[in-house]
Amino acid sequence: MSKRFVALGDSFTEGVGDEDAGRPNGVRGWADRVAEVFGAADPEFGYANLAVRGRLLPQVLREQLDRALEMRPDLVSLYAGGNDLMRPKVNIDALMRAYDAAVALLVKSGARVVLFTGVDGGDDPVFRRMRGRVAIYNEHVRAIAAKHSCVVVDMWNMRQLRDRRMWSADRLHLNSLGHTEVAISVLDSLGVSHALTRAVLGDPPSVDPRVQRAENWKWAREHVVPWVMRRVRGESSGDVIKPRRPELLPLEVERVPRKGASND
User: Fold this and answer.
1) Positive or negative CA dihedral for 56, 61, 67, 69?
2) The pTM is what?
3) How many CB atoms lie within 10 A of CB 73?
4) What angle do CA 140, 143, 148 make, to 5 degrees?
5) Contact present, 64 and 8 (Cβ < 8 Å)
6) What's the pLDDT score for residue 224?
7) Which helix (H) or strand (E) holds 5?
8) How many helices (H) and strands (E) would you count in the chain?
9) Taking every annotated instance into account, which residue ranges of this chain make up the domain SGNH hydrolase-type esterase (predicted)?
10) Which pLDDT tens digit goes with each residue over 163-181?
11) Does 36 score more than 60 pLDDT?
12) Which of 14, 57, 110, 219 is least enclosed, having the fewest CB within 10 Å?
């Protein structure tokens, strides 16, 4: 089992959408949940989370890669590029060449590397327009993972993440249910026993079209317009944000039983 876990990336890995006022930056997220499972089994386990919301892929690599390598982790997660794909113009091939080089360095350091595909937003009228870009990005991720023998968490094929009840009010970030789903998939992909459980939501409720339109307008006012204005001003939601766990430190967590473990 891993002794040193470093998480790299943007808002997805920082934990945005999974609010927890008692934690740094006011969020928890899937990476914390994964770290808690490791930490419950080993009090000397160390965890650092360098991810910062709003970061583009080049920024993630420039600001976080060397710091991660200095910590000599045996497990690293990397997800970045989603913010780049949302820009009006993006050179995906160039982005992924830099991504490939970064993954090569992480693997060469001896770390086991976890990569992620993007989520399929085909059911969303806004993010459906990005579907082709995300699919190209995902094919690059899969090829790079195969080249370097990395673990891939295939969120594109996680059908449950297409349920809006897994997402926060901004429709861009996963809520606590969604982050738990990702944590489970990460742990399962690593072959780590755990006691996390997936949500059983049942069929989504039917929504009156008039109510849906009103909700869409409210979402646009509260989330889309501020996002556009930040782009116009050249600002990012992460401009004043610092990494939540910039150092590789042990976790103070309640010990929880793992699947199949004795309760004695």
Assistant:
1) positive
2) 0.87
3) 26
4) 120
5) yes
6) 64
7) strand 4-9
8) 9, 6
9) 7-179
10) 989 999 888 899 999 999 9
11) yes
12) 110
